[in-house]
C-alpha cells in the first residue's frame, strides 16, 4: 500500500493551518481564562485548550523548514526564491511588531529564520568542495542566527541545514529532528505528514496561488492583532 499520498500543496495547507492555530492561541486565548484553565490534570501535567493548540502549532515550523529544502532543490530560480523570502520577512516585521509589543532587536519573525536557512543551503551548494570555507561560513551564520533573535533562531537554522543534509535518510532525519526543536515529541509529529510526501507539487499552480502563501503569514498576524484589540 502506497502511503506517500501528500503533495507539496497539501503540506503547505497543513503548515499554515497548524501555524494559524498556534498563533490564535498565543495572541487570543492567552488572556481568556476559560481556555487557559486546565480541564485535565495528571501527575502535575495540565491540559487546556491553550496547551493543546500551542502543541498543534509546534508542527508548523518543521513542515515549513522541509518545504524550504524542497523549494531550494526544485526551484528554477534560486535568486528569485531568496528575494521572495526576504521580501516576505521584511513585510512581516510590521504585523510581527504589532503582535509583539513593538519593534525591538530581541524579536523578529520566523521568515528571517527560513531565509537564513535557505542562504545556508546556497552556501552548501557553492562551497561543498571547500570544507574549511563552508564550515566557517555555516558556523558564522549559526552565530548570527542566535544573535539576530528571529523566531526559532539558531536551532531553527540548524534544523533546516540538517533536513537538507539528511534529505535522503528519512528515519535518521526524523530521529535527529525530534531532538533539535522545542516540545520535541510534539514537533516530531510533523514528520508523519512529511513522511507521506510524494514529491509532487499538487494543486497549487500559477504565480498568484504560489505567492498567496507568502501573503498569508503577515496577513494572518495582522488579522489576529485586530481580533486581539477587539476581544481582549
Q: Could you tell me the radius of gyration in angstroms?
A: 18 Å
Quickly count the domains.
1
Sheet-strand content, in percent, reads under 5%
Q: H/E series, N to C?
A: HHEEHHHHHHHHHH
* Backbone shape: globular
Task: Give the distance, in angstroms, between the N- and C-terminal Cα atoms.
Answer: 49 Å
**What is the average of the pLDDT values?**
87
Query: How many helix segments?
Result: 12
**Proportion of residues in helical segments:** 55-70%
Q: Which structural class do the helices and strands define?
A: mainly alpha
Question: How is the main sheet built?
Answer: 2 strands, antiparallel
Describe the structure.
This protein has 232 residues and is mainly α. It has one domain (8-231). 70% of the residues lie in helices and 3% in strands. It contains twelve helices and two strands. The protein has helices spanning 8-27, 33-36, 49-57, 60-74, 78-99, 110-126, 131-148, 153-165, 170-177, 184-188, 191-195, 206-231; strands at 40-42, 45-47. The longest helix is centred in the C-terminal third of the chain and has 26 residues, at 206-231. The chain is globular, with a radius of gyration of 18 Å.
Question: What topology does this entry show?
Answer:
Blueprint: H1 8-27, H2 33-36, E1 40-42, E2 45-47, H3 49-57, H4 60-74, H5 78-99, H6 110-126, H7 131-148, H8 153-165, H9 170-177, H10 184-188, H11 191-195, H12 206-231
Antiparallel strand pairs: 1-2
Brief summary:
This protein has twelve helices and two strands. By secondary structure, the protein is mainly α.
